[in-house]
């Protein structure tokens, strides 16, 4: 009888440890997310399932998940970091006066025939500041014509960022690292 009770207790301890570790990993390190909408097309598709890493600070061109003002989580690409001057001219991104290529937009740019994919703007036009404020980032969806992003909601404070995501795990045909 004592042996059965001891074995039961060992199983319970193992189960409690497993549940505790899973909770810690999900809350502090990694979490799953489902892409909802078309704002990151063609890079990400509605229904893609991804892993969000909660480690480290976002870097330029990372895809991040954050709490948006509408009490909803958004997934967008980091375009500007604190102190950056952001500008779009002739469908080209300029950060601190330097032109940047955005290869993840090539597919959409090739399809557009009725004007630019990204309309001209400067950060000053959007948030009435020359640079991205300290502790915040400027984000945009890859589907530039149909994305509610920093052009509409303003810059995103670091404390609203859940983490960055690079890995699709579902559907299986799309599994892998995204650029």
From TrEMBL:
CDD domains: S26_SPase_I (cd06530). Its EC number is 3.4.21.89. The keyword Hydrolase applies. Keywords: Hydrolase, Protease. One of its GO terms (molecular function) is signal peptidase activity. It comes from the Bacteria. It is found in: Cell membrane; Membrane. Its main location: membrane. It catalyses: Cleavage of hydrophobic, N-terminal signal or leader sequences from secreted and periplasmic proteins. It is a single-pass type II membrane protein. It holds the Pfam family Peptidase_S26. It is an enzyme of class 3 (hydrolase). Residues 8-170 form the Peptidase S26 domain. The keyword Hydrolase applies. PANTHER family: SIGNAL PEPTIDASE I. NCBIfam families: sigpep_I_bact. Belongs to the peptidase S26 family. This is Signal peptidase I. It comes from Rossellomorea oryzaecorticis.
